[in-house]
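Why do we care about 3D structure at all? Because function follows from shape, and shape follows, mostly, from sequence. That is the central idea of this module. The next example makes it concrete: a single protein chain, its amino acid sequence, and then its structure expressed as tokens.
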Amino acid sequence: MSNKPRFISVLPEIIKAFTKANKQVFDKWDISEIFEENKDKWRLPLYMDLNIFMDQLAGQTFLKEAKIEFPDVPTSRLFYYDTASAYEISSGIFPKGYLSHYSAVALWGLTEQIPKTIYITVEQSNSPAKAIRSELEQKNIDAAFRKPQRQSGTSSEIGEYKIILLRGKNTKNLGVSQFDDEDLKDVRLTDLERTLIDIVVRPSYSGGVSEVIKAFRNANESHKVSVNRMSGYLSRMNFIYPYHQAIGFYLEAAGYKKSQVDIFASRDKEFDFYLTYDMRDMDYSQKWRIYYPKGLI
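And the structure:
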């Protein structure tokens, strides 16, 4: 009878090394670190490189393998434990990415819904300086918001979840950090204030404006929202459109203190603006110079 392959002989030690890492999901770089640190100690065959090692892992039962494919993006090969959530697996796809929009809303507990779509933002790199943009004009705002909002067509699937990849503007990961939750490991997402800004800017990635206003209310009731931080974030994000009018509208409609609302009310309002795209029946707030769907408040 031939001897066991060396990989099988040291499998208990391999399992122990992965357990010691205290992670739920392992990408190629995580596995490379474990492999390089232990291959000599385990006396693995010289021909066994990282790819062969990963192929051997794929044949075992203590980890599952997921191959995540997006159009025009290199395939991500992940290994994970049975106990890993779809959020943890999704957060492992792009090392520089983070969960955002409706996914962040759900993880912060700002919705009663259980979204089956997970949003991952990967910021675009800084592009060379472009020519100074022309001044914002009312007719251009009107034309842009009469049309449906553009949607990302870059998606993949993990089980019953649809994963949407968003190419976000470069903010240097403003307001992004590890999620402080003992049940979720290695999940990066937007903090509360950044999340509220993002869902105002892209309501269609957040369940729509009705879900956005609920998120603002739930945040006010169950968290300590720093409206000053929101204002600072918004200034640093340097949007073309006057989203401060939409944020102020939501803060007031969701019952925030007058002192909080006034942080956005004190900003200039040079243009009429829109709460979302492609609205048919609208009401208008003179205070915020904003159009919103009829019946929203």
